Structures are given as structure tokens and as C-alpha cells.
Amino acid sequence: MTRRAVRNSIALAATATLLAGCSGPKHAGAVGKYRNNPSPALTTLAKRPSDNRNSMAIMQDTNWRMFWEDGGRAMMLDRPSRLSPKPIPY
């Protein structure tokens, strides 16, 4: 075998190795998905979507209960009248 044939064989093997790479087409999609979204289960730094929905539900419930309590205070319905001469347990 001549030197030229050996050089061509080495160049052909190197080209084939570079074109093949370490990952085939079936792995390329998985790497791309991970690279685009490395933490798919989290929407914030520490919460999942279900945790966010739970926090929003608790916040809305608390806000509505405070709204009705404030409304009772504004309309003076939050406690019985103290004008009665008899003691009123409250």
C-alpha cells in the first residue's frame, strides 16, 4: 500500500468519525428538549404548576373572606348593638 493510499484511508476514517458524532438522530431531539427547558416541572424557581394553583386558590379564598369581613365592619354588622340595658355576651 502506498503512502497516498494510507493517507486517503486515514482521512476517510477521520471524516466518517467526525460526521457520525456521539449521538445519533434519535438522541438529538432529547438533547434539544432538555436544552430548551432544563426544568420542565417547574414554572418558578421552586414551584410546580400545581403548587402555583394551590397558592392562588388559598390567596383568593383569604381575600374573599377578608372582603366579607371588611364589608360587615363597614356596614356595622360585625357585632351586636351595645345600646341594650341588658348585658349581651359577645
What does this structure look like?
The chain folds into two domains: 1-38; 42-78. The protein contains three helices and no strands. It is rod-shaped, with a radius of gyration of 36 Å. By secondary structure, the protein is an all-alpha fold. The longest helix is centred in the C-terminal third of the chain and has 26 residues, at 49-74. It starts with a helix and ends in a 16-residue tail after the last helix. The chain has helices at residues 3-20, 25-36, 49-74.
Strand content: under 5%
Class based on secondary structure composition and strand pairing: mainly alpha
> Helix segment count?
3
Question: What's the Cα radius of gyration?
Answer: 36 Å
Taking the sheet with the most strands, its summary is: none
- Tell me the count of domains: 2
Summarize the structure.
This protein is mainly alpha-helical and about 90 residues long. It folds into two domains: about 1-40; about 40-80.
